[in-house]
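Dissemination and training. As part of the outreach component of the grant, students in the summer workshop were shown how a complex can be specified as a set of sequence lines and then modelled as a single object. The example used during the hands-on session is reproduced here so that future cohorts can follow it. Participants entered these lines:
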Amino acid sequence: MNDSAPDISNLGALPVDCISVEVGDFSLAQTIESGQCFRFEKLDENDYSLIALDTRLRLRQSGDKLFVQGCAEDDFARRFRGYFSLDDDYGEIKSLLAQDERLKTAISFAPGLRVLRQPLWETLCSFILSQNNNIKRIKGIIARLCRCFGDDLGGFYSFPSAERLAALEPEALGELRCGFRDKYVVDAARRFANEDISEHTLRAAPLGEARAQLTAIFGVGPKVADCVLLFGAARLDAFPRDVWVNRIMARLFPEGLPEFAKPYAGIAQQYLFHYARLSGEFQ
DNA sequence: CGCCAGGCTTCTA
DNA sequence: TAGAAGCATGGC
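and obtained this result:
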């Protein structure tokens, strides 16, 4: 609740601590609302509060300008360009994928969508909580998780470390009201804190090996594992299959994605997910 | 109310 | 070894 919005009373003039960043092939709204991240609030059209990397940002987009309040320019360049994948050439990636007409159509529904690069542990924990759940409730559970077990960073909370959660028993998560997922979170925290999960392996090992490490966690199956690899370990070849993606794949790609798309299967997946969900053609 | 949620584990034939 | 049932909770 108090984990959400900064003061936004002065919308008229640009606040002095507001920086502006040139962006192309990027839509703040499409990216932030694409189900990858959960610590955000929509304040207005093209206007969001986002807690990421121990920082609370206020973001507003107007055309190719992204206005950012809450971090300095050098800090944005050092940490948030990577977070938003702004140094990836999405123009290039999209024209590669768009060689396939079906992907071209999907892309046209959300041409500003980008895959985020989020911290590994936060991504793992968040997507465990996401299973068989809806985004509104996931956001509430994560807000309570941070308020209960994160550090106060001045009106908002850090994402709790794996070490902190590893020391708890599942019952201690009762206040989160995350249901049967409590024991999954604790198992993941313990394995992560123990370094049973190797970030290096997840980032660099063959996909099958990386998946195996994640699915060894109680409560992590193939879908959550691929979300973690894609959103939390920069594995753009990971391909999370949820009900929507399964549906659209059965209809449009019964033989699977074209070979040339596979290095960017995860990005293709995001366009397809968005298209399947919002076009209304795949219910 | 009842159905469903960016699934996974466990039980069953 | 595939397919269905059960799982906590709450949004709509």
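The longest helix of chain A spans residues 135-149. Students were then asked to discuss how this feature might be tested experimentally.
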